[in-house]
Amino acid sequence: MSTLDSPADAGPAPSRRELNKAATRQAITDAALALLRGKGPGNFTVEDIAEAAGISRRTFFNYFGSTDAALASIVHGFLDNAIQQLRLRPADEPLLESARAALVALADPKAVAPLAELFSLTQQSPLMAHPELEAWDHCRAQVFMVARERLAGTPSEADELYVHALAGSVISCGKAAMEVWFNRRGPDLSPASLAELRQLLIDAMALLGTGFTTPAPSTSRSS
């Protein structure tokens, strides 16, 4: 389950060095997730990850500062892909519609699989609470920046409360969708379960867009 599956980008093709760095980073996060899956939170070290990834301890620290940071990068990977899609949306499109479209663009349930597995493996452990919170806060900051760019030149641009509340609400809805999914599905990572998670993320954005005046579409409800 790779976090390298990024949305299409109109920028220049990455260099060989950039591809090698991305592959090493991916090997580290894959190794960390595999160890988390096999041993549980807090039961493996940086050295264990480095050995599983086929790299040196020093190389590990070129990419991450801790085992928690390596695992949190899985959350970063999905959220950064969503932010990239958000930035590709038309500048005059309402931000909440853009957020929903960005999640729709991540059409393959496999795109949410690493995020879903990490979430399910760490729900009972306080060890991952801080790194996961940092990853979501990073995304909130990115949404804030996009909102500021979109609202440039409008009355809302100068309203700090509006922009902060908007960015925070988007992230809170995303986290709520994850929690509802886990309550329903637990550790189930089947294609149907992942498809439901994706739909819950989309429906959460739809609720925000309507001001919570209408219920979420029935497609997100458990049968």
From TrEMBL:
Membrane-traversing stretches: none
PANTHER family in the cross-refs: HTH-TYPE TRANSCRIPTIONAL REGULATOR RUTR, MYCOFACTOCIN BIOSYNTHESIS TRANSCRIPTIONAL REGULATOR MFTR-RELATED
Keywords attached to this entry: DNA-binding, Transcription, Transcription regulation
Keyword Transcription: yes
Organism listed in the record: Pseudarthrobacter enclensis
Stretches the record annotates as Disordered: 1-20
Domain HTH tetR-type: 22-82
Protein name from the UniProt record: AcrR family transcriptional regulator
InterPro entries: DNA-bd_HTH_TetR-type_CS (IPR023772), Homeodomain-like_sf (IPR009057), HTH-type_TetR-like_transc_reg (IPR050109), HTH_TetR (IPR001647)
